[in-house]
Task: structure prediction
Amino acid sequence: MARHIVASTSEIPPGGNKVVDVAGRDIVVFHVNGEFFALLNRCPHEGAPLEKAACVARLTSPEPGVYERSRVGEMLRCPWHGWEFDMRNGQSWFDPKRVKIRSYPVAVERGDELEKGPYVAETFPVHVEDSYVIVEV
Ligand code: FES
Result:
């Protein structure tokens, strides 16, 4: 897998997302609760763009009439027909063994920690004041 710098962390606000083209793939990167998740921007049902999906909580019921919310913002609800997916791994909520969205590893690294390329150019002093989101495809 190659590493691709797709955004600075400040480009994707908490609760927001950014669609990026990585090696010809339409990928959406979400920022939820301080973490970043990268998924193919296409619902496996009929292809809805997941950038428009609602980021909802996991809802469970330990007993009738009692509801508990957890993992707030980590569940995706497709905008077209409401299929739900776990943002951490792309698995569907209703059939996790057979239906999922392709997910990609994400890392956040400081700009001064990124790998240097093979080319050399004249350089100038630079101050790093932000971090970047890196997606592996
Ligand atoms: S296209 Fe996503 S649920 Fe139908």
